[in-house]
Amino acid sequence: MATIEVEVEINAPVDKVWEIVSDIDNEPKFWKGTKEIRNISKEGNIINREVTIAFRDQKCLQEVKLEPKEKIEVKFLKGIIEGEKNLFLISNGEKTTFRTVWDIKLSGMMSMFTGMLKKHIRSGTEQAMQSIKEEVER
Per residue, what are the HEC states of the chain? Predict the structure, then answer.
């Protein structure tokens, strides 16, 4: 498994950051590795969806659990990626620490390329989080 951790401090209260990051249908706007989202079901704070990722236009099934103003837990259930992506919000008064932690690997025969993918995902995560920071701080 590849573990990737990226953190950024946003000059805004957690409520304002949550507004942007919890709009998970808008994910492709910030996360360039996500091309398209199709929601399958929603029950309470759990959403099941199909995501088309930029890597060879592969489709992945995900379960997304929203824990308001604290965490978004994304589990990859089926597809080329196995594992989780977790987004954490930590309130520091008028500032918010925004942390993303990936714990993933490529499935099947592709697993040998997980290491190469790690650098790409880190770069995409840094870019996404910077874009979110800029959007929130406007």
Answer: CEEEEEEEEECCCHHHHHHHHCCHHHHHHHCCCEEEEEEEEEECCEEEEEEEECHHHCEEEEEEEEECCCEEEEEEEECCEEEEEEEEEEEECCEEEEEEEEEEEECHHHHHHHHHHHHHHHHHHHHHHHHHHHHHHC
**Residue 19 lies in domain:** 2-137
Residue 80 contacts residue 110 (beta carbons within 8 Å): yes
Token pair belonging to 51: 């995501």
Name the pTM for this structure: 0.93
- Count each helix (H run) and each strand (E run) in the chain, helices first: 3, 7
Output the domain CATH number for residue 72.
Answer: 3.30.530.20
The domain tally of the chain equals 1
> Which tens digit of pLDDT belongs to each residue from 76-130?
999 999 999 999 999 999 999 999 999 999 888 888 887 888 888 999 999 999 9
